[in-house]
Amino acid sequence: MLENERYGEAIELLRFLLQCQGQNERNYEEWQALLEWLEAAFPSYSSQDVNDMKLEEESDEDETEITRRMVQDKLSQDAGYADKLLDTVMNGPLTEQTVLALEQLAYLDHPEVDEALKGWLQEQTLHPLLQFRVLQTLRRRGMSGPVTVPRGAEIVEVEIDQVPLNHADFPDAVLQILDRVGEKTEIHEPTLFYFAQELWTQFIMAIYGTTDYLSILDEEDSTLDIWAAALHDIVSESLKGIRDEEQIRSYYGITDTMRFRYEQAFRSLKQFVSAGVDEP
Fold it and tell me: In the prediction, which pLDDT does 170 show?
């Protein structure tokens, strides 16, 4: 957050962490010291929390129109602007600039962008989160129909006009899994739930359209419990350095007959975490 100058979000996170209980005392001292430094260095961010700041921002519709006008103005001033944005996306590392370039491409009225992005998506094996962002960009540009892309070891077909544009757009089964983890952790382990939200948001984008993703959509209670338990387990292990599998499985009623599917879900999450896949 600090590297990307997201000071307001960093302040909000530190305030949240300081309210959590059960952590090492040294952690609280470090968080408090960092929070005080941020509040002193960036008083405009500390004077109001992030929620208040969001209330003062323009509506999504206004932001969309402002972005559209800004992008079109830049294109009118620079005929090569579309090529520059495409170059940032296709040839640079996955950074905040990549995401910003994709956001601008979503509103760029230029005939070559659709085919350039779609062709690149189909022909190259890309970072799974970058793949998903490109799919979102294509949907925002008004494209529809199927596109076939390599996702991990699979080749999947995705309907562009069904790609979720935000977390709330995902099917109810995806959201229910996080709700179940929240029920088990929000009171006694709020820090764990915060990181579970972050991990699940990235993971579900990374596996969109794959066999794992489709398995979640059967909406059976056992499936939702299995994925919720696996998510709880992997985040707990990451934060504490030890795995408390038996206890966590008991929280969600994971029986021995469900054990194999549970281990498969845990392995998928583990591979994602081990790969160090982080969204900018």
Answer: 95
Residues 6 or more apart whose Cβ sits within 8 Å of residue 102: 89, 133, 134, 136, 137
Ordered alpha helix ranges (H), the chain: 7-19, 25-41, 43-46, 50-56, 60-77, 81-91, 96-105, 112-123, 128-140, 172-185, 190-206, 211-216, 221-240, 245-251, 259-274
Torsion of CA 23, 27, 31, 32, to 10 degrees: 90
The residue with greater pLDDT, 124 or 56, is: 124
Burial 45-58 (b: 16+ CB within 10 A, else e): bbeeebeeeeeeee
Burial class (CB in 10 A: 0-12, 13-18, 19+), 195: middle
Instruction: Locate the domains of the chain by residue range.
Output: 7-56, 60-163, 168-274
Tokens of 108: 């760029």
According to CATH, what is the number of the domain 168-274?
Answer: 1.10.472
For CA atoms 249, 254, 259, 260, give the dihedral sign: negative
Closest C-alpha among 98, 157, 111, 62 to residue 280: 98
Q: How far is CA 268 from CA 72, 177, 205, 234, 252, in A?
A: 42, 15, 13, 10, 18
DSSP 218: T
Q: How far is CA 68 from CA 18, 96, 143, in A?
A: 40, 19, 17
C-beta of residue 210 within 8 angstroms of C-beta of residue 154: yes
Write down the pTM of the prediction. Answer: 0.74
Q: How far is CA 150 from CA 5, 8, 116, in A?
A: 34, 37, 17
Tally of CB atoms within 10 A around 246? 8
Decide if pLDDT at 1 tops 80: no
